[in-house]
Amino acid sequence: MLPHLSPLFAIPIWRRLRSLGGIGLIPLGIADNSLIPLTGSMDVLTIWLAARHHEPWPYYALMATLGAVIGGYITFRLARKGGKQTMERKLSERRATQVCAAFERWGFAAVTIPAIMPPPFPFLPFLLAAGAMQYSSKKFLAALTLGRGIRYTIAAYLGFHYGRHILRFFSHYYKPAIAILVGLAVIGTILTIVQYLRYRKR
Length: 202
Prior knowledge:
By secondary structure, this protein is mostly helical. It has eleven helices and no strands.
């Protein structure tokens, strides 16, 4: 039997998403790729579901990728419509400049590589940059699907083969794990609000 992560999955939203199985990864992916990302949540749920072996692990990788791509595309379209002003509202001027420079240099890879990187690597700036700089929608979707596909395939594979050991570790250290996830989410929210207020002031 899998270690029971009751302190985390007893939270109503987590309990609901868990009960949905792979389908629950779609709304979570949309939320995680929004303007206030839920750092690490997709990886945790993907590993947990794959570890239960209720469905073949590629199914969970597919559902996680689908949710992430839908969420990422929504953010991309919002930034594309709002132009660079949208990016500047969410990022500091220095950060926006750095991301734009990286995007101009690497293009496709500037979406794919960050999409593969695990938390706490910030992916939102690259979604905003792709939209603000009017990057090709087809190329963006291809890069995002490739990157997220690789990331969640790895997560689901590890969950299927080593999930029991991973979940056993988290069951012993759930308090620090929850504290870190909540802390990252709070920090992200605070930074977003501060940057927005600075933009309004300017």
